[in-house]
Amino acid sequence: MAAEIQKMEIPRVREIDIKGKLVEYVFWMQKQGYDPETIRGWQGCLRALLSENADLLDIESVKEVLAKDTLRKTPRWGQNRRRNIINAYTLFLRFNKMPVCDKWDKPKCKVIRKFPFIPVEQELDTLITGSGRKNAAFGQLLKETAMRPGEAKILQWINIDSERHVVTLNEPEKGSNPRMWKVSQKLIGMLNGLPKTSEQVFPGSLKSMKVTWVKARKRLAEKLQNPRLKKITLYTYRHWKATIEYHRTKDIVYVQQLLGHKDIRNTMVYINIEHAIFGAGENDEFTVRVTEKPEEIKELLQLGFEYVCQKDGLVFLRKRK
Fold this sequence. Notes:
By secondary structure, the chain is mainly α. It has 14 helices and 6 strands.
């Protein structure tokens, strides 16, 4: 039945009212302290519903649009996008004090966490050297620090210590922890080569930077006949850095701190990725510790030991020599 749903034009007055509510929603999120990137993303989710002619003030209309998309041969929205749209609309209902519990039973979506694409370092460097000065510096920053693109975008010149080669992030995204990095002279040189016309290191919008970067990526992929380059996103630098640092240190707590994760379970995925890419290693030697005391377990993890298994109440941990 949903496949037969036809779009119906929303009356002009109603459309103006909805757009006004959307503006108020964004302003409300700002006052509630939501991250700017989250606000932009969820505003985009609601605009995606509007593009399908959904009436945001009519719960049934939104349900129909979501149902219709699932019946397309090729759905316009993947499961991650669908989940974000549902969550953004749920918050919109809460903001408008609409009867969420009575009429809005959140539609189901099955989000399968996929392993990220991990390129070789040369491919990342190809995209950096093949980009313009601003995007090249941006890419090198992501590569060395594993910042999220949104975090790198809001950096200010005051956060760059050129003399000691230190970059500081005090406004992380997604509730992450603040971080500091020792970076290369190469990166400092690339950053200092940018014009200082604003307090921000990378003025302008992140969206425009992404557009420029995608064009350069497509050009380089076609020129070098390497379609793998098209799979690299700005977020790929973060996944690559986490994988490489775990391979180098075998210290998952260090990688957690590098990424700013508050929950180490979000970091554990890189153990699997590293093992798959690099293998177990034939000549690996480890220092092994066995304990049953929570305090000792915590201390050993902080020292870089990694959990191996648990048996008969004992916890086995190891650290590369």
